[in-house]
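$ ./design --mode recover --in tokens.txt
reading tokens...
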């Protein structure tokens, strides 16, 4: 069953924050809730884009697969995030895959309803433009990381970014609950699992981090930052 503890309400979805209560109520009548199990696909590369989805609970990964079979995770969508990349073209096809990383719930929004709402509401159009701009910045940063930075630096940046988003401070150490497997971290960094494991243990040996079951403890944040210089 989907995780209910991180489920959000429609009012918390950034795409809909500019709508009035009556407009949100109208949107709600056009949405359909779908439950997914871990591993289920929402869409795959090359298929027509007939709907968008919004994550209600759980996590969904957006990724592409190389000819070698290796996956490159482009985004991890959390509650409130959306795949809304389709500007409304009836001939638009998916260029990525979307797969549930956990049991989750999503709202499904048909393309026709989506186009009608965007075209009739300037607040949603502005929110969509911001979404596109943020996504462009994210992908530009991802391309720079993968093409210009060595794996060790990409891993350190990943850990520091995680510490900014989700951390527990204990005796001046940052404890990160690890919601990703080593394989998922590798897919996100565009490398092999064995490479991620090797660099994690190198950082542990240098006493910059510690590794516990389902946790990574950052022992020396400044030391990690110096390695990015």
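writing sequence...
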């Amino acid at each position: 069953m989907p995780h209910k503890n991180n489920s959000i309400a429609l009012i918390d979805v950034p795409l809909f924050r500019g709508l009035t209560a009556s407009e949100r109520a109208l949107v709600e009548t056009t949405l359909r809730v779908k439950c997914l199990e871990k591993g289920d696909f929402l869409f795959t590369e090359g298929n027509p884009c007939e709907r968008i989805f919004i994550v209600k609970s759980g996590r969904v990964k957006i990724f592409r697969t190389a000819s070698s079979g290796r996956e490159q995770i482009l985004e991890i969508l959390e509650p409130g995030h959306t795949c809304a990349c389709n500007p409304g073209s009836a001939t638009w096809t998916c260029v990525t895959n979307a797969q549930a990383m956990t049991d989750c719930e999503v709202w499904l929004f048909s393309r026709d309803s989506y186009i009608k709402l965007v075209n009739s509401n300037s607040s949603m159009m502005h929110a969509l433009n911001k979404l596109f701009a943020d996504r462009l910045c994210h992908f530009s940063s991802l391309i720079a990381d993968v093409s210009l930075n060595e794996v060790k630096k990409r891993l350190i940046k990943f850990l520091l970014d995680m510490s900014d988003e989700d951390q527990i401070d204990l005796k001046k150490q940052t404890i990160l609950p690890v919601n990703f497997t080593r394989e998922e971290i590798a897919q996100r960094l565009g490398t092999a699992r064995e490479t991620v494991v090797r660099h994690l243990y190198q950082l542990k040996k240098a006493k910059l981090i510690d590794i516990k079951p389902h946790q990574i403890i950052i022992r020396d944040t400044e030391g990690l930052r110096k390695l990015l210089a």
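exit 0
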